[in-house]
Amino acid sequence: MVTDAMPSPANAIPAATIVIMRPRGDGPPELLMVERAATLAFAGGAMVFPGGRVDPGDHRLAERVPDLVQDEAAARVAAIRETLEETGLAIGFGADPDLVAVMRQRLHAGTPFDTLLDDAGLELDLSVLIPFARWRPEPTEEHGLSRVFDARFYLATLPADAPAPTVDHSENVRLVWISAADLLAEADAGRAAIIYPTRRNLERLARFADFDAAVADAARHPVRAITPRVEQRDGRAWLCIPDDAGYPICAEPFAAAVRG
How would you class 150 by CB atoms within 10 Å of its CB: exposed for 0-12, middle for 13-18, buried for 19 or more? Predict the structure, then answer.
């Protein structure tokens, strides 16, 4: 359930991302992660969930979904569009893999997403995305106004007939299937970079045995915007989030936090 109806600050860029989960034998589910190119200004070199900014075209498609608030619908459209572009996966619409590949190519070439769907006679099912979290940091002099994102996170399962995802080699340089706990271990060993919101969400996701458990947890914690705050504790600065939003770890030393 989405309860946070507060509009984004004028200087926050609306964005959306999908936590795509697939079962892994008897172990915890794997998540699809992409590694951003090191040259990018925001989260360069970091492992992130597929996603990106909400575009004007996403709002055009959102107008076709009257049962969702426009900003919420547009965010879900953006998450699906960006995931198609970055991974080649068709989340929220069923199509032949060859058609999906063509749609991805046309998307990269600049064809609007709504045009692609109309040409293929397809409609989006936004209900496959389960609202999980929303992160909206405050602007800082360090980041500047152009790098403040109001990011919504959604849960989704990988369709059984989905083709293998492939990296787009534009903003991202590789993709991997990995459990939340394993990626945290990679980061702690210095073999992967993750920014503060990703780390907190991975810690939360690491507790779930499967997709259904993640969905149940999302239902217990209605989505509201998480805005990290700096607190002084025993003479040290800590970057903190609310302790009642479903996250098992709610603070990290400010000096150790990777903030993008």
Answer: buried
Q: Is 248 exposed, middle or buried, given 0-12, 13-18 or 19+ CB atoms closer than 10 A?
A: exposed
Within a 10 A sphere around the Cβ of 48, how many other Cβ atoms?
A: 23
DSSP character at residue 25: T
Please tell me the CATH superfamily of domain 13-223, with its number. Nucleoside Triphosphate Pyrophosphohydrolase (3.90.79.10)
pLDDT tens figures, 63-86:
999 889 999 999 999 999 999 999
Q: Return d(Cα 87, Cα 164) in angstroms, integer.
A: 9
Sign of CA dihedral 242, 248, 251, 257: negative
pLDDT in tens, 9-40: 457 899 999 999 998 878 899 999 999 887 77
Residue ranges covered by each domain of the chain: 13-223
* Rg, the chain, Cα only: 18
CA of 250: how far to CAs of 58, 243, 254, in Å?
Answer: 33, 6, 12
- Cα gap 155→159, rounded to integer Å: 13
CB 254, CB 228: distance < 8 Å? no
> Residue 74 has which token pair?
């547009």
DSSP code string of 135-163:
E-PPP-TTT-GGG-EEEEEEEEEPPTTPP
Are residues 114 and 63 in contact, defined by beta-carbon separation less than 8 angstroms?
no
User: How far apart are the C-alpha atoms of 46 and 118, rounded to whole Å?
Assistant: 35
